[in-house]
């Protein structure tokens, strides 16, 4: 009997350990659990005492505080929290004081929105706080009619945010490096998804390759954005710490992640051609399997970071790569065969994963790019009519004014939901606004219908439980699927109003109508006010992408000519800017698909340009990934490389002339490949050949009728 009891206890402990591990492996779940727990602490005692308004209003403050939380070192989080409480208090107090004068309230709403949006452009810390301040102001407008006294909302809304902030800050002080683990874990998970998708190229045909590369371009957007967020968090910790050497492990993981991303983004040959070669087919399948295993290794390291466990590199990857090299020797592939270069790249990637198991001692941590402009300069730089953030701020303010006017003139009950809908639906671009519109409307409709059906069956305790469950699921889905999160926040609001006035069901249909009005206003404004259709931006985006690729290629040639063993910040900045420009082009191609039909006439050409530019970046990345290779005569690499560099950036040449000169370079490289015996030299020449060939094809496309004047007119 005693043995069975002990087994039962251990099972319970193991079950708890598994659940804890699941939450640790999913940072969004952990954050959702934290916010929901704080809400529960606020709601349950107040609801038991019969203070429903106080419970719900404080919970809304918790919600706003959680939504506006910033990714800072604990010291920076203290500053953010103080700024948040003050801005929330000012926002809610202004609403209560100006409520008797609608004209002043409406005017103040629009003007403060412009100031808050521009202040958010000064940095990530201010962006979260200012968004929360706008949100709290709208919450105060919604609740002002049912507040027992004018001063309660300016106390309860900032109070809820403060309570959540203190709990979150306390947890962060107990685990100060958890934030770094979470962001780096997200980075390695993003790398895993990229590697998994890239494995579909091995083997692949031409059509399949185009589809996979299009998906890779979009996954690269996610990857580069994640790297940028990691960089910002590392800089935040570095600024706040007296001894930055404690950050060495996380800087090491970040530098390895960047190197792995460069290798993952690299291309060595057109894989559809290699797949058609019967000798290469089996080895292509082995490469695809290796990429799957590397993706698994990346997920495994992310899990180790998030759970605090030790990381053991999977031995299977090394076995597969060794088998691949054996197969290459068995088939007797030429020394300059692209599969040899691919296998070497995989071997280096596997070595990088092995380096994650230990942290080397370095005297100085690597520098990271940072924006050192003073705050006033960051704010001032946005005060240009051509700046997208100023246009977005004014567009949002105009929508708020129109929505507020409709609410007041038509005397719509809880018409402030029109403004709330505009805040969440209106985005800087047409395509993003359109996506949010459908997600918001569908999510609200689903939430209203399902919420009404559920709430009618529940008692008061059941509604409180449903409210907390909806809050948890809202946070879980917020960054994964916005439309699903809207369903749960709608149920949350329904339960909240039912607790306050037992009118949750009654206000849901007006809420749906307000949502439709707000969505229409957001969509109309982005169509009518200073729209920038993507097809007009494509020529400039392509020009920027080519210029950034050229700068990246130039930085790589400089590394070949003068290897840098101390600080490669300039090289990393050039690489980052090239990927950012490629991402802007990829996003424009994606957005053009959702624009009005008459503006989609260049969709196919935009796809081709995006595809070719991403291919060029991939070949340049491969050239950069192998810059550490030992070459006897680097001059024979530098000279043709500089020819390609000059042609890529020579704006004095017409597209036809550039195409002709690039074709000559391609022919010259073909001749070099035939006569040079060095294996390493031939591998580098293959990469230069591919870079020149893609440059030739881009020049050929530019020489066609896809010119700036054609597009804009």
Distance between the termini: 86 Å
Discrete helix count: 28
CATH-scheme architecture of the largest domain: Up-down Bundle
Question: Quaternary status of these chains?
Answer: single chain
Name the descriptors.
28 helices; 713 residues; 4 domains
SSE diagram, text form:
Blueprint: H1 2-25, H2 27-48, H3 52-67, H4 74-98, H5 102-120, H6 124-143, H7 152-174, H8 178-198, H9 206-240, H10 248-265, H11 271-276, H12 278-307, H13 315-331, H14 338-355, H15 375-381, H16 388-409, H17 416-425, H18 430-455, H19 460-478, H20 482-501, H21 504-528, H22 534-561, H23 569-592, H24 603-625, H25 635-649, H26 655-675, H27 679-702, H28 708-712
Helix pairs in contact: 2-3, 2-7, 2-19, 3-6, 3-7, 4-6, 4-7, 5-6, 5-16, 6-17, 8-9, 8-10, 8-12, 9-10, 9-23, 9-24, 10-14, 10-24, 12-13, 12-14, 13-14, 16-17, 16-21, 17-21, 18-20, 18-21, 19-20, 20-21, 22-23, 22-24, 22-25, 23-24, 24-27, 25-26, 25-27, 26-27
Structure commentary:
This protein has 713 residues and is mostly helical. It has four domains: 19-175, no CATH class; 181-199 and 240-357, no CATH class; 388-532, no CATH class; 542-706, Methane Monooxygenase Hydroxylase, Chain G, domain 1, CATH 1.20.58. Helix content is 79%, strand content 0%. Helix 4 (74-98) packs antiparallel against helix 7 and helix 10 (248-265) packs across helix 24 (603-625). The N and C termini lie far apart (86 Å). The model is unreliable at 1-7, 9-13 and 705-713 (pLDDT under 50).
């Amino acid at each position: 009997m005693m043995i069975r009891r002990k087994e039962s206890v251990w099972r319970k402990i193991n079950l708890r350990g598994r659940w804890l591990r699941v939450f640790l492996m999913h940072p969004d779940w952990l954050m959702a659990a934290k916010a929901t727990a704080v809400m529960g602490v606020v709601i349950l005692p107040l609801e038991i005492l019969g203070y429903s308004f106080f419970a719900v209003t404080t919970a809304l403050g918790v919600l706003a505080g959680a939504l506006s939380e910033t990714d800072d070192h604990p010291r920076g989080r203290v500053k953010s929290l103080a700024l948040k409480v003050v801005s929330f208090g000012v926002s809610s107090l202004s609403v209560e004081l100006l409520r008797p004068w609608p004209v002043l309230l409406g005017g103040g709403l629009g003007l403060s929105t412009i100031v808050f949006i521009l202040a958010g452009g000064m940095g990530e810390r201010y962006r979260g706080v200012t968004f929360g301040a706008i949100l709290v102001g709208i919450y105060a407008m919604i609740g002002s009619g049912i507040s027992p006294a004018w001063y309660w909302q300016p106390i309860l809304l900032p109070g809820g945010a403060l309570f959540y902030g203190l709990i979150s800050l306390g947890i962060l002080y107990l685990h100060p490096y958890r934030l770094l683990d979470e962001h780096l874990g997200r980075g390695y998970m993003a790398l895993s998804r990229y590697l998994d998708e890239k494995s579909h190229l091995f083997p692949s045909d031409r059509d399949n390759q185009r589809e996979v590369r299009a998906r890779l371009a979009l996954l690269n957007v996610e990857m580069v954005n994640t790297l940028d967020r990691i960089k910002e968090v590392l800089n935040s910790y570095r600024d706040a710490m007296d001894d930055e050497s404690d950050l060495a492990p996380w800087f090491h993981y970040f530098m390895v992640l960047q190197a792995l991303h460069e290798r993952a983004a690299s291309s060595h040959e057109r894989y559809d051609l290699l797949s058609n070669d019967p000798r290469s087919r089996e080895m292509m399948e082995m490469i695809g399997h290796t990429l799957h295993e590397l993706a698994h290794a990346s997920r495994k390291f992310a899990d180790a970071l998030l759970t605090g466990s030790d990381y053991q590199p999977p031995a299977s990857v090394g076995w597969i790569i060794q088998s691949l090299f054996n197969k290459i020797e068995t088939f007797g592939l030429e020394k300059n065969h692209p599969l040899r270069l691919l296998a070497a790249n995989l071997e280096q990637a596997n070595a990088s994963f092995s380096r994650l198991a230990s942290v080397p001692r370095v005297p100085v941590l690597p520098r990271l790019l940072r924006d050192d402009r003073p705050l006033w300069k960051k704010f001032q730089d946005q005060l240009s009519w051509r700046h997208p953030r100023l246009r977005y701020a004014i567009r949002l303010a105009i929508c708020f004014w129109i929505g507020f006017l409709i609410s007041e003139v038509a005397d719509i009950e809880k018409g402030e939901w029109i403004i709330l809908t505009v805040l969440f639906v209106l985005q800087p671009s047409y395509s993003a606004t359109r996506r949010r519109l459908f997600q918001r409307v569908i999510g609200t409709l689903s939430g209203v219908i399902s919420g009404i059906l559920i709430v009618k069956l529940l008692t008061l305790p059941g509604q409180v439980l449903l409210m907390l469950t909806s809050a948890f699921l809202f946070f879980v889905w917020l960054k994964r699927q916005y439309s699903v999160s809207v369903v749960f926040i709608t149920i949350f609001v329904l339960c909240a109003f039912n607790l306050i006035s037992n009118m949750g069901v009654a206000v849901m249909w007006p809420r749906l109508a307000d949502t439709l009005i707000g969505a229409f206003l957001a969509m109309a404004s982005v169509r009518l006010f200073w729209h920038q259709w993507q097809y007009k931006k494509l020529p400039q985006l392509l020009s920027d992408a080519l210029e950034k690729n050229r700068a990246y290629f130039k930085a790589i040639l400089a590394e070949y000519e003068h290897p840098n063993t101390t600080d490669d910040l300039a090289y990393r900045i050039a690489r980052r800017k090239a990927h950012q420009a490629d991402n802007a082009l990829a996003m424009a191609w994606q957005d053009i698909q959702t624009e009005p039909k008459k503006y989609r006439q260049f969709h196919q050409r935009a796809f081709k340009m995006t595809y070719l530019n991403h291919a060029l970046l991939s070949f340049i990345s491969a050239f950069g990934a192998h810059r550490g290779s030992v070459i006897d005569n680097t001059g024979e690499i530098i000279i043709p490389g500089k020819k390609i560099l000059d042609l890529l950036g020579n704006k004095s040449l017409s597209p036809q002339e550039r195409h002709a000169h690039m074709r000559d370079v391609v022919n010259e490289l073909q001749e070099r490949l035939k006569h040079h015996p060095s294996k390493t030299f031939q591998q580098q020449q293959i990469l230069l050949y591919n870079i020149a060939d893609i440059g030739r094809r881009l020049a050929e496309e530019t020489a066609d009728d896809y010119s700036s004047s054609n597009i804009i007119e």
